[in-house]
Amino acid sequence: QVQLVESGGGLVQAGDSLRLSCAASGLTFKFYTMGWFRQAPGKEREFVAAIGGSGDTTYYVDSVKGRFTISRDNAKNTVYLQMNSLKLEDTAAYYCAADASLTLASLTTRRAYDYWGQGTQVTVSS
Fold first, then answer.
1. Cα distance between the two ends of the chain
2. pLDDT per position in the chain (126 positions), as tens?
3. From CA 112, how far away is CA 98, in angstroms rounded?
4. 30 DSSP assignment
5. Non-local CB neighbours of 20 within 8 Å, separated by 6+ positions
6. Are the CB atoms for 55 and 29 separated by under 8 Å?
7. Closest Cα to residue 79, out of 107, 106, 98, 59?
């Protein structure tokens, strides 16, 4: 079955960097758009970034543009989220997600993704 396993979260100070990884198995990875979402306590899960199957196209929520970079290594079935200049408001559980049939209109929509990881916690302190 499909499994997505996130890693790389932790406790950092504002301004620091972290790189999240999501290792996928049980699917033909190159055919899947991969997304990162995050959920802070008491808030809805929100879209952060997505990357197309070939890695040529990327999308970001405005609040992370210029600070976060999504990338993928199809040889390793892994997607990454490099997070720089972290802010207190970036504190959340981060989830990776996968889907093979997203459209441009749907890739920011949580319910459009078929597969999800269990999440990794990122906590940014002042």
1. 40
2. 999 999 999 999 999 999 999 999 999 999 999 999 999 999 999 999 999 999 999 999 999 999 999 999 999 999 999 999 999 999 999 999 999 988 888 899 999 999 999 999 999 999
3. 9
4. G
5. 6, 7, 8, 9, 36, 80, 81, 83, 94, 96, 120, 122
6. no
7. 98
